[in-house]
Amino acid sequence: MALTVFVGVLMAAILIGAPIAYALILCGVALMWLLGLFDGQIIAQNIINSAGSFPLLAIPLFIIAGEVMNSGGLSKRIINLAIAMVGHLRGGLGYVAIFAGVLLSSLSGSALADAASLTALLLPMMVIAGYNKNRSGGLIASVSVLGSIIPPSIGFVVLGVASGLSITKLFLAGIFPGLLIASALCVAWWLVSRRDTDVQLSPKASGKQRAKAFVDSIWALLLPVIIVVGLRFGVVTPTEAGAVASVYALLVSTLVYRELNLKDLNALLLRAGKTTAAVMFLVAAASIPAWMITIADIPGQIIDLIQPVMDNPKLLILVLMALILLISMVMDLTPTILLLAPILVPVVTAAGIDPIYFGVLFMINCSIGLITPPVGTVLNVVAGIGRMRYEALLKGTFPFLIAEVLVLFLLVAFPELVIVPAGWFAK
């Protein structure tokens, strides 16, 4: 009964157009009413206590770091380095987008921030060079989702808080799968870019120009190294890594590159504050149904429903992946995590599946949802900045979407591709 009420109220609230945060609150209140536990004071306490979680402080810190990087010249120098290294190859600007996307993902932690940056800087260059605009935009959208997979990922922070999993372990476990997806995107781009026969290639950079681009970007490249090494050796927690990233990016932007003035900080902090407020309100709203999910033993009810596949981990993972993908297609990344993580992590743990491994698959699946209709948040960002029709962009995204789904199935079939590299990074 509790599961039916939970799903029914959630779907009804979404269908009438209620914002996701309010839909989550309604779910929690409905469960409280069903179980005879309704108490306004408990609702208020859950909202306040969840927003005061120390690990969640990483979210505004990494959001600020991402804003500073885009405004202070770090992102631009990463793209310039990618152009110097691979811009001259056939389909070179596509490889630049992938290379730059991987590096930006290790800086910002946000798929939306990476999509905005890459679209504004690279899409006009690709169109001028003769690349198909829809495929170029589709590639940029597809590589931008790595921002939610490669650390420092804001999505992993939310997942860790919602499920109780180690954020540091999630960060380290996301590195190799993120690089694997980037490799798959390279193969997909190589296959589709051969159609662009009249593309104007960039001149090959000389050794001196490449060295200059590398030296110019070295301050930006040091940041992911500092974060990963700090997490790996336990020098910093994920929250402290966010503080380090923010301060480091601010110092480099103002004192080294000198592209960010202190008078620009008001607008920058305002943008970061608006983004943080939206995420934190979702987290706070989700605390009520998360608490009631435990009280009503909804994970136990789901285990009873899927008992026939509990003894087959791969089949169970496939069923859960299909469920997550279906929900992530109609819901943004953060609400999907907050809704499903408290339910599904206990289920996979009971089935004997490594919860960190599942967390990585969960995040990849939710990230793919960012470039699938009907919502496709990253697609909307790329379409808006690139002034493209949503339907045309979706068509251009399709080959790269297929590549990412194939990698997801590969990771389901061979869990060692996640578990073994995660063990290397954690040693």
Written overview of the protein:
The chain has 427 residues and is mostly helical. It has one domain. Helix content is 78%, strand content 0%. It has helices spanning 2-15, 20-34, 40-51, 58-72, 74-86, 92-108, 111-128, 133-144, 154-163, 167-173, 175-193, 207-232, 238-256, 265-295, 298-305, 313-330, 333-350, 355-368, 377-386, 390-413, 416-426. α11 packs across α20. The radius of gyration is 22 Å and the shape is globular. The relative contact order is 0.16.
Between the first and last Cα atoms, what is the distance in angstroms? 45 Å
Query: What is the total number of structural domains?
Result: 1
- What is the 3D form? globular
Q: Helicity level, as a percent range?
A: over 70%
The overall average pLDDT, rounded, is: 84
How does the SSE layout of this entry go?
Blueprint: H1 2-15, H2 20-34, H3 40-51, H4 58-72, H5 74-86, H6 92-108, H7 111-128, H8 133-144, H9 154-163, H10 167-173, H11 175-193, H12 207-232, H13 238-256, H14 265-295, H15 298-305, H16 313-330, H17 333-350, H18 355-368, H19 377-386, H20 390-413, H21 416-426
Pfam families: DctM (PF06808)
GO cellular component, one term: plasma membrane
Function: Part of the tripartite ATP-independent periplasmic (TRAP) transport system.
